[in-house]
Amino acid sequence: MSLRFRVDDCKPKSTWFAAVRFMGVPNGPIDQLQVAITDIAAKVSGSNGHNSVKNAIKWPFQKKEAQRVLDKIERMKLLINLAFQEDLSKLVFSIKADVQLLTRVDNRLEALNLKIEELVAKSKDDHKRLEKERVKIINWISRLNFNSTQHEVLSKRAPNTGSHFLNSETFAKWLGKKGQTLWCHGIPGGGKTVFAATVVDHLHQVFAKRTDIVERHLKRERFPESFGNRSESFLESSSSLMLWMSAQWTMGNDDVEQYVRYRISKEGRLGRHVARDPALEGLIIKEVQSRTQHMFLLAQLHIDALATKPTRRALENALRTLPKELDQTYDEAMRPIYNQNEDDRELAWKILTWIALANRPLSKSEIQHALAVFAGDRTFDEMNVPDEELLTSVRAGLISIDAIDDTTVRLIHYTAQEYFERLLRARIQSLQSEV
Questions:
Q1: Average pLDDT, whole number, for the chain?
Q2: Domain GPI inositol-deacylase winged helix, which positions (predicted)?
Q3: Model-level pTM greater than 0.85?
Q4: How many Cα atoms are found within 13 Å in the side-chain-facing hemisphere of 36?
Q5: Rounded to the nearest 5 degrees, what angle is found at the Cα of 373, between the Cα atoms of 370 and 378?
Q6: 3-class SS at 410?
């Protein structure tokens, strides 16, 4: 019965089950085997009970018939076993064929995977190539890198700088309304760049999940207050423009104090003076605040000057003579250059001249190569290239080196550019000829 069930349960199209399935046809080997087994079972069971004597007498006459049935059963068993072996052989071949097919599929999948990896690698290479081309084009248009400038400004910013502006009602109104432009203006050196970098950093944190924020850098020239008023009146009266909001960017005493404390903690020599006399910190803050006139740049230059003082007396003398005007502060910053030996002084002037007169920011390597060339040279002499350390030794607090790529050299502020243009005006023609 179990064999009959397996035959009936097999799938009609199973080629590896064809022989066994043939065994199960009506009146086929399985049916004949079942009949033979039933017949021999009846003959054997009939020997029990009260007919046992009778059957014993009849058995010699039925023995041949029983043997014939047993022989038939053996033949059916052999036939069914052969059918099973044949189907098993077909099953093995079928499994082997399936395994070979799976192997071919696996090989093709592996080849496809390698092809996909090649395409991904090629895509990455193409992306890198396109990115290099993009950077090359951007650098061809302009070497100015506002991302690096942003990073550099933030790296020098004291913690919580500009918090009074970010918490102001004007900024909150601008941030809460759509379609408004915040018009901000301030005096030269008043910290507009620092505040702008602070606002951009704040917006990045507020809208961290936004990817459509457009960063804008507005370089504004100095203009009279009356001109600023007329400009605002024009903008407010123009119906074709968006709504503008105005804010005066000024560096408060709190910002100055935070910045001075931050710089003292970072400047080793200045920090040691304060560590020996903590009251000195308050004096430095007071004197710097009284001489900055809300100019962040002045605070920066004053701390740069104070940080070089080797003794407490020299520091106190410098505090009493801190200038209140930018040009005076730049004059003080230039004093170490004037006090250098003749070779270093000449080199410093050449470096400052190249930076001030160049049409774009130069890299340290470009300045080194420029300094190595003299009028009349027909070949470039590698032996005449000055060491990179010499460039940084003549900075005098007036030159800034990019904090990210550590190569781009520029003046610290556009007012420094104006200062050098005035300073070099008398000899500008000869200097331009040399450049």
A1: 75
A2: 344-420
A3: no
A4: 20
A5: 135
A6: strand
